[in-house]
Specification:
127 residues; mainly beta; four-stranded antiparallel β-sheet
Amino acid sequence: QVQLIESGGGLVQTGGSLRLSCAASGRTSSKYAMAWFRQGPGKEREIVAAISWSGANTYYTNSVKGRFTISRDNAKNMMWLQMNSLEPEDTAIYSCAAHSTLVNWAYYLSTADYGDWGQGTQVTVSS
């Protein structure tokens, strides 16, 4: 099991930037793919971005392509989400998640794929 703690959320104006961090601890010697999910007010949880264990393969949902960047450093057990050009529609609780895997190159897109979750960090974008 991997314990995950997010940080970096906050209140920002439209067009601003935030960098979310996700620190992993526990069974970090195993390989794990990771992702950022978000849940906005009155909405279902949705995937924002995903990254393979190697970091070479990434996925972004259409609404954040070109604005958000997911990255990780396995030596530091860290993952980040750089969010630029933020919009009010990005307002949500952002959570990081980890999926134990045997492959370096795969990422996963479904909430059901992920067994380890952080507590979430609030991102609010004012108009």
